[in-house]
Amino acid sequence: MSFSPYRPERPAPEESLARARAVLARLDERRSVREFSSDPVPRELIELAIQAASTAPSGAHMQPWTFVAVSAPELKAKIRAAAEAEEKESYERRMSEEWRQALAPLGTDWQKPYLEVVPWIVVLFAQRYAPLPEGGRRKHYYVTESCGIAAGLFIAALHEVGLATLTHTPSPMRFLSELLERPAHETPLILFPIGYPSAEAEVPDLARKTLEQVSVWHE
After folding, report:
1. CB 56 within 8 A of CB 154
2. Quick count: other Cβ atoms within 10 Å of Cβ 210?
3. What count of other Cβ atoms lies within 10 Å of the Cβ of residue 120?
4. Closest CA to 24 of 210, 148, 196
5. How far is 114 from 208, CA to CA, in rounded Å?
6. d(CA 120, CA 163)
7. How confident is the model over 149-170, as pLDDT tens digits?
8. Per-residue model confidence (pLDDT) at position 107
9. Count of CB atoms within 10 A of residue 7's CB?
10. At what angle do helices 143-160 and 13-28 cross, to 10 degrees?
11. Are the C-beta atoms of 191 and 83 separated by less than 8 Å?
12. pTM to 2 decimal places
């Protein structure tokens, strides 16, 4: 691998602080949305968000992710039906009472009508290894961590362009591998419904943890 000079801009401290505060303010506006508009979203916005996500660092630079984007109505309907079947089973039989109580304030249930309303569904698949053309496989490292970072950048990129999403993780998710015809080395990780919030969209009035609650300092 060749190397090239890296000389990024180094803003003055005051400018850095201004930028940091602006980033925090912008990201603090982000919310998970379950009420979407059916208004179309240009494919290029999704493409650019995927490319932004793919700037994430990854173990040994293996970039162990595949983003599968779906806009076909019939396929979205199949995804909804399969996701609701798994979610209904989870809500009625798999979830503990403690889990159900934790979800109760959010008002969620097994029904996911937004999966057919949104113009796009994007599923993030984690690549556990890469098949080699000559046979065999190349192991990927820190796959879950790498894909988690990419997912975070993807969410941030969508928010920056005014799109809303939700991290939907129906369990188990094998149906996504089957419906989207993904190879054996890929495992579905997160399903993102993507679109603009509906005109009537509401989100829970939540408070995020304070800096003191999420950080420890040794100075």
Report:
1. no
2. 8
3. 22
4. 210
5. 25
6. 11
7. 999 999 999 999 999 999 999 8
8. 80
9. 6
10. 90
11. yes
12. 0.94
